[in-house]
Amino acid sequence: MLYASPFPSRYVTVFCTWTILFIQVICVYLVSGEKLQKAVARAEQVFNTNADKIVASVLVCYDAAIEMAKKNGSFDVLNKLTNERTEFETNHKLPKLIPELKYRQSLSLACDRCLKSFDDAISSATKNKQLAIAESMQNKKEAFVAHVARTYPGARIYRKTWKHPIGKFSTTDGVVWIEKKPTNTFSFIETGRDLDCVYLYDQSRSISIVLSETCCTIKTPKGKPKVTYFGSWTE
Predict the structure, then answer these.
(1) Is 154 exposed, middle or buried (0-12, 13-18, 19+ CB in 10 A)?
(2) Averaged over 49-64, what is the pLDDT?
(3) Please, what's the b/e burial string for 110-145 (b: 16 or more CB within 10 A of its CB; e: otherwise)?
(4) d(CA 132, CA 229)
(5) How confident is the model at residue 15 (pLDDT cuts 50, 70, 90)?
(6) Each residue of 191-229: pLDDT tens digit?
(7) Total Cβ atoms within 10 A of residue 46
(8) Which among 85, 86, 136, 140 has the fewest CB atoms less than 10 Å away?
(9) Once rounded to an integer, what is the mean pLDDT over residues 140-145?
């Protein structure tokens, strides 16, 4: 004898449909969260690989300078270079006797790219209402920033504030920048960044800005690029 369900068949169908939809939503939630975590993990791996290469390139420069000091018979220079190399390799102290700007710029760019991956993952998780995943990504981002600040003091983490004598450029999201001065405020959109600079554009005035390690260069539609401020990154 067949078992007869106490519920009408249409209710059973609706229940099964909603159950399947619920399971599908859960699966999408878990899969998308896993993808975000894998993307961040890959970004961290890329940063670590690049950071190791950057540090190795500095050590090569030290070795070349040390060999040169030996050939020149410069005992004092040799000792200073050797001691500084040891401090750089073991305690991550910034170089003083060899050029270090390229080292800091390369680290900053590598760090920027990794942090961008974190921010993209956090934003995506938040939009999808995956708040637990977004919070987890935020905690990992903060741990990464602390690691970089502790291990690579030369890195300009995220390059988000550039100060000059009468004001500053700053951003909170890496997209919209605000220049604040005593008399006025201007808004810019970041159009790109590389090893040396961050590039901004003000569409309302058709003005381009280039922020480097030491100066701010401005270009108007009818004029040539010119340095308007001297300043530096503070964050």
Answers:
(1) buried
(2) 90
(3) bbbebbebbbebbebbeeeebeebbebbbebbeebb
(4) 43
(5) low
(6) 877 767 889 999 999 999 999 889 999 999 888 899 999
(7) 14
(8) 86
(9) 86
Instruction: Kindly provide the residue ranges of all beta strands, DSSP E only, lying in the chain, ordered along the sequence.
Output: 161-164, 167-171, 176-180, 185-193, 198-202, 207-211, 215-219, 226-230, 232-233
Q: Are 65 and 81 in contact (CB under 8 A)?
A: yes
Please determine, for residue 181, whether its predicted confidence score (pLDDT) is greater than 70.
yes
Q: Which tokens in the block code for residue 100?
A: 């270090």
Q: Which two tokens stand for residue 135?
A: 């919070």
Model pTM above 0.70: no
Tell me the helices (H) and strands (E) count for the chain, helix number first.
4, 9
Query: How many degrees, rounded to 5, is the angle at CA 91 between CA 102 and CA 67?
Result: 60
Virtual CA dihedral for 145, 169, 167, 180, nearest 10 degrees? -120
Helix axes 9-72, 131-151, angle to 10 degrees: 10
Phi (first) and psi of residue 227, to 5 degrees: -75, 125
